TrEMBL record:
Designated name of the protein: N-acetyl-gamma-glutamyl-phosphate reductase
Entry keyword annotation includes Ribonucleoprotein: no
One term under GO cellular component: cytoplasm
Domain Semialdehyde dehydrogenase NAD-binding: 6-151
Alphabetically ordered keywords of this record: Amino-acid biosynthesis, Arginine biosynthesis, Cytoplasm, NADP, Oxidoreductase
Catalytic activity as recorded in UniProt: N-acetyl-L-glutamate 5-semialdehyde + phosphate + NADP(+) = N-acetyl-L-glutamyl 5-phosphate + NADPH + H(+)
Pfam family membership, one: Semialdhyde_dh
Residue runs in coiled coils: none
GO molecular function, one term: NAD binding
Length: 346
């Protein structure tokens, strides 16, 4: 346990960025170096703990404005950079960081698709690095571990896709889904999933449980692409701070039983430290209260053998397993580090 991986976080002032910084600071084989915000940020030079009071005395590191000079020096003092930046900003920064010899863990959607044609429709910009898209590895840690171990650019999945793919992929890979029927996904996220910027929708008096991005949310093609099967995905904003529950209704292939579905989950996640299974959800099912503050993904399922349908439920913390915690999982794999517990700092 002698490695000391030097880590930088760009976009450290947001909810995901500060969780990254906290996890890195506590990791016995990582050290927290630069924590950066844009030069124009009003948070530049403020201590992280001034923005996020629960880290007072734990993360008093000042936020460095990312000047050209500061950016050019990142490669001399770091091994890996975590990008908690806007999608298009990540596409601009990642190639330059890779050119400095750094490993890049990108938490935006900037490199989650090999097909550049998806970006104008779902992200609103033309991708400037189509060749680099083909080299990025999708960082769904339980499923792409071997590829992550040798990747220099890891596209950390979105929060909704992490929960939903974790529920669906065991059945897809085992051939248990009816491929002629779209899985129907209804998922609810806490308000932190919308980021730290103030808006009317996120304000205390306005927040209400409601669907958004209907049939047009950018996570719909992300789920479909990495599942290998189209889905119908409807996200909802909930009136709570953090956590996601994704409920998925699927049509199973002919004559699939509860026992077969259970076996598929057990085989897929045998030995996983982050995934916990709730067979049949008898008496207890995945819930936000059991995952908030952790990098666990709790999965439950129940099969109606008469109709051939199943209901799958996944619960995660959107800021940890859905973002910062999974990014650290990927870094652990990439650098051969220990499976450090990925709970939030108090």
């Amino acid at each position: 346990m002698t490695q000391n991986i030097r880590c930088a976080v760009i976009g450290a002032s947001g909810y995901t960025g500060v969780e990254l910084a906290a996890l890195i600071a506590r990791h016995p084989q990582m050290s927290l170096g630069g924590v950066y915000v844009s030069e124009a940020s009003l948070d530049a030079n403020k201590p992280l703990s001034q923005l996020h009071g629960r880290f007072l005395g734990l993360l008093d590191t000042p936020l460095t404005p990312l000047s050209e000079e500061a950016f050019a020096a990142i490669g001399t003092s770091h091994d890996v950079v975590f990008l908690a930046t806007e999608h298009q900003v990540s596409t601009q920064l990642a190639p330059k960081l890779l050119a400095q010899g750094l490993v890049v863990m990108d938490l935006s959607g900037g490199f989650r698709f090999a097909d550049a044609d998806i970006y104008p429709q779902y992200y609103g910009f033309d991708h400037a690095e189509p060749e680099l898209l083909k080299k990025a590895v999708y960082g769904l840690a339980e499923w792409n571990a071997e590829s992550i171990k040798t990747a220099n650019l890891v596209a950390v999945p979105g929060c909704y896709p992490t929960a939903t793919l974790s529920a669906l992929k065991p059945l897809k890979e085992a051939g248990l889904l009816d491929t002629q029927q779209y899985p129907v996904v209804n998922a609810v996220s806490g308000v932190t999933g919308a980021g730290r910027k103030a808006s009317m929708v996120n304000s205390f008096c306005e927040v209400s449980l409601h669907p958004y991005g209907i049939l047009g949310h950018r996570h719909q093609p992300e789920i479909g692409t990495h599942l290998g099967q189209d889905v119908i995905f409807t996200p909802h904003l909930g009136n709570f701070p953090r956590g996601i529950v994704s409920t998925v209704t699927v049509k199973l292939a002919s004559d699939v039983t509860q026992a077969q579905v259970t076996e598929a989950y057990q085989n897929a996640y045998a030995g996983s430290k982050c995934v916990r299974l709730y067979d049949e959800m008898a008496g207890q099912s995945p819930s936000i209260k059991n995952v908030v503050g952790t990098s666990h993904c709790d999965l439950g399922w129940k099969v109606d053998e008469t109709s051939g349908h199943a209901v799958l439920v996944a619960a995660i913390d959107n800021l940890l397993k859905g973002a910062a915690g999974q990014a650290i999982q990927c870094a652990n794999l990439r650098f051969g580090l220990i499976d450090f517990p990925l709970e939030a700092a108090s």
